[in-house]
UniProtKB/TrEMBL annotation:
Keywords: Membrane, Transmembrane, Transmembrane helix
Pfam families: Zn_peptidase
Record keyword Nucleus present: no
Domain of life from the UniProt record: Bacteria
Protein name listed in UniProt: Neutral zinc metallopeptidase
InterPro entries per UniProt: Uncharacterised_pept_Zn_put
Membrane-traversing stretches: 20-40
Topology relative to the membrane: Single-pass membrane protein
Location relative to the cell: Membrane
Principal location listed in the UniProt entry: membrane
């Protein structure tokens, strides 16, 4: 993809500067993050069972040239998300509040608990922040078989920004109320989680459509790389690779086909009103 000149001031690059420390947050944020973590095949028990403090990191080092370039790329993609969502919200009579993005190595503190690289990128509603350890993309390629490009990274960040949009629109609050009510079975709540994740994929596609119309940054193969990443982290693909069989009732993020479908629906429609995955999937 082509780079733009835009850069966001809402990126906190903690790589090489240490981190760790006591676990903070919990409650609503912890519950939501447990569902969202599975986007990347992570284990939410690392969040839910954490209690107490973790050993602080003492690493202090200069970032490599490649790491600095990655940081610039994330600042650029974050800026394009901010500009696009500011416009979409304004077009619908609302005001967009940008999310923050944290880049870290190994672990760092978040409003939802201790962020760990094993969890993959995630969004924490408690502090309205996307957390990304870039080593995840090696895992995506080696473990899940997706070819990683710059637009793969852009898609993943846009998906997490989609969760931020859901947070601003009150969607995450509603799904958490359903979860906490105790009136729904695990299978029913899994369907709610699938609808939540597929809507974030739809928002990622919508972002790609709007941003490309403005910046013309897509190059041949970019959309295909995003679709490949979406398919790679489909529940069926993850289950086949991890346990050798597929159990659809335990899906929390949607199948590979569903993830592709909703990302492309966002891109092709360019209409946020067509992203109601809940009515589509929870009939």
């Amino acid at each position: 993809m082509k780079w733009t000149d835009d850069r966001s001031g809402n990126v906190d690059d903690r790589r090489g500067s240490g981190g760790g420390g006591a676990i903070v947050g919990g409650g609503l944020g912890t519950i939501i993050i447990a569902a969202i973590v599975f986007f990347l095949g992570g284990d939410p028990s690392a969040i839910l069972s954490s209690g107490g403090s973790s050993a602080p990191q003492t690493e202090q080092r200069e970032l490599s040239q490649n790491e600095q370039q990655v940081g610039e790329f994330i600042k650029m993609i974050t800026a394009e998300n901010e500009e696009t969502w500011t416009k979409i919200f304004a077009d619908n009579g609302m005001r967009f509040q940008p999310a923050k993005v944290v880049l870290f190595t190994t672990q760092t503190q978040s409003g939802c608990g201790t962020a760990q690289s094993a969890m993959g990128p995630f969004y924490c509603p408690a502090d309205q922040t996307v957390y990304m350890d870039m080593s995840f993309f090696d895992e995506l390629q080696e473990r899940f078989g997706a070819k990683v490009t710059e637009f793969t990274i852009a898609y993943v960040l846009a998906h997490e920004m989609g969760h931020h949009v859901q947070n601003l629109l009150g969607t995450l609050d509603k799904t958490d109320q359903l979860r906490r009510s105790g009136r729904y079975s695990e299978e029913e709540m899994n369907k709610v989680s699938v609808a939540t994740e597929l809507q974030a994929d739809f928002y990622a596609g919508l972002w790609a459509r709007y941003s490309n119309e403005r910046e013309k940054f897509l190059e041949p193969g970019d959309l295909e790389s995003a679709v490949e990443a979406a398919e790679a982290v489909g529940d069926d693909n993850i289950q086949k690779r991890s346990q050798g069989y597929v159990n659809q009732e335990s899906f929390t993020h949607g199948s590979s086909a569903q993830r592709k479908e909703w990302f492309m629906k966002g891109y092709n429609s360019g209409d946020i009103k067509q992203g109601d995955t809940f009515n589509q999937l929870l009939k």
